[in-house]
Specification:
The protein is α/β, with parallel strands linked by helices and 236 residues long. The protein has ten helices and seven strands. The strands form two sheets. A five-stranded parallel sheet has the order 6-5-4-3-7. It has a two-stranded antiparallel ribbon with strand order 1-2. The longest helix has 13 residues, at 16-28.
Length: 236
């Protein structure tokens, strides 16, 4: 049972916890259950191990204060099964989506190695200052969508290095802070984008709201409550 619990819980965005859990099981398999519980917390990002009344081990990963909607909801039984309904409805609103590199990193885009099914009618606009996206993540998205627009104020963004190799990649650069009023004008006048969905977090949502750049708010009500003092909100 301990192996199954550990493997099912090994879902960090980089896959490192998965490898660490498997290594832990091989190295500690001869130790007693009590010793294994005490040692489990040595695995990075594993959480605090607890032995339940059913003699099963849980690590509290799914209900810790650091639960992240982008990273964790798709891994929770009873939640992940219904997420496709949201994504399906999202595509009926607009075929252009604005998101952030931070969200893309959290959902594991940078580590994806398979060939995605191409949707040539889909446009992604990604705000990525740090950057959060690496070369592999960019290439995956470029194979996935018909057009990718990277918006950044970082002259060292990896998108510049591969721009000439991919005809569906455009880099929109800014010196200093990103000018969202100017960006939205460019999206309409240069790229012909009249409607887009905004798939970011509360900070960017608030910024765009205060600048008067959001026309409509569509709120999905689902039977799921995510709490905690640091839980992400619609507007920060």
């Amino acid at each position: 049972m301990i192996a199954k619990i550990m493997f099912d819980s090994a879902c960090c965005k980089t896959g490192k916890r998965d490898k660490n859990c498997k290594r832990f099981y091989k190295e500690k398999k001869d130790k007693s259950l009590a010793e294994k519980i005490n040692l489990l917390s040595s695995i990075p990002n594993m959480g605090k191990p607890v032995l339940t009344d059913k003699k099963e081990i849980t690590t509290g990963i799914y209900w810790r204060e650091t639960l992240d909607p982008d990273r964790d909801l798709k891994r929770i039984a009873g939640v992940k099964e219904g997420l496709h309904q949201y994504y399906k409805h999202e595509m009926t609103i607009a075929r252009a989506s604005l998101n952030t590199g931070r969200v893309m990193e959290k959902i594991g885009i940078n580590e994806r190695r398979w060939e995605p099914e191409n949707d040539k009618d889909l446009t992604f606009i990604i705000i990525d200052r740090k950057p959060h996206l690496n070369r592999n993540g960019l290439v995956f998205i470029l194979k996935w969508v018909g057009r990718l627009l990277i918006v950044t104020n970082n002259p060292e963004h990896p998108g510049y290095a591969i721009k000439d190799r991919y005809g569906n990649l455009d880099m929109i650069g800014y010196n200093g802070d990103i000018d969202f009023e100017d960006l939205f004008c460019k999206l309409k006048l240069t790229y012909g984008i009249d409607r887009l969905t905004i798939q970011s977090g509360g900070t960017l949502n608030t910024c765009l709201m205060r600048k008067g750049l959001i026309d409509h708010i569509c709120i999905f009500i689902a039977p799921l409550a995510v709490g905690g003092k640091d839980a992400a909100s619609l507007l920060d």
